[in-house]
Design goal:
This protein is α/β, with parallel strands linked by helices. The chain has helices at about 5-15, 70-75, 95-100, 140-150, 185-195, 195-215, and strands spanning about 55-60, 80-85, 105-110, 120, 130-140, 160.
Length: about 230
């Protein structure tokens, strides 16, 4: 079975749980990597890519346990992705170390209209010799706002406010408002802006395949698997 940081975090979260996590479709027999029904497993289609950019996922409580989570897709495609559970007062020391790395320039990815006026806000990546480390707050929109507002150890990071103009193709959960995108879609747009076009397209293809098979695995939907075409 393939391994990545989100799956390891999921196992850690399961081990510390005092009761079983019951997501929708909990009776379905799932692949323990892609978390799709075993009949729709896509593990043999996963193709990791190399990229200059790196990702650090800060995940809200039960997010690693949810079959609909798309942060896991980033870690599938970019094996160097890091993932941590969010804590307001006791952040993982490895997370703090990652944010202090001298090899990458960290950016906290968040919408500018939610930022404090005193925060440095960028709308595009600056010309910088260091490759970017994109810090993503992975959860529902209310959870992401909470993480943003209650994580003092993130206050010194410059904010990268990314405008994604295309309509979201997520459809796995109901968005809080129109135009909101899932974690994998945001990551693909960030990779494209950073010039990691191959990894961006690879992630989009993986996301499309995951989305199709996830929806096909729902009881009220017919199974229809549509192949993706990789473009250079």
């Amino acid at each position: 079975m393939r391994d990545n940081a989100v799956l390891r975090l999921r196992q850690h979260r399961l081990e510390r749980s005092t009761r079983p996590f019951r997501a929708r479709g909990c009776r379905v027999v799932r692949c323990q990597h892609c978390l799709l029904p075993v009949t729709n497993c896509l593990c043999d289609t996963i193709t990791p890519h190399s990229a200059r950019s790196r990702f650090c996922l800060i995940m809200f409580d039960t997010e690693p346990l949810k079959p609909s989570n798309t942060g896991r897709l980033i870690a599938d495609i970019l094996p160097d992705t890091q993932a941590f559970l969010w804590s307001r007062t006791e952040p993982d020391p490895a997370l703090l170390a990652a944010l202090q790395t001298s090899d990458y320039q960290p950016y906290l990815v968040f919408l500018a209209d939610e930022a404090e006026p005193s925060r440095q806000v960028l709308h595009r990546l600056p010309d910088n010799a260091k490759p970017p480390l994109f810090v993503l707050l992975d959860g529902t929109w209310p959870e992401a706002r909470k993480m943003f507002r209650k994580s003092p150890y993130l206050d010194a990071l410059p904010i990268l406010s990314l405008a994604v103009e295309s309509l979201s193709r997520y459809q796995l959960r109901e968005a809080s408002s129109a135009g909101q995108h899932c974690t994998a879609e945001i990551a693909a747009a960030l990779l494209q802006q950073a010039g990691d076009n191959g990894a961006s397209q690879g992630l989009l293809n993986h996301f499309d395949s995951f989305r199709q098979r996830y929806l096909a695995g729902k009881a009220h939907r017919p199974v229809q698997i549509i192949s993706s075409t990789v473009t250079a």
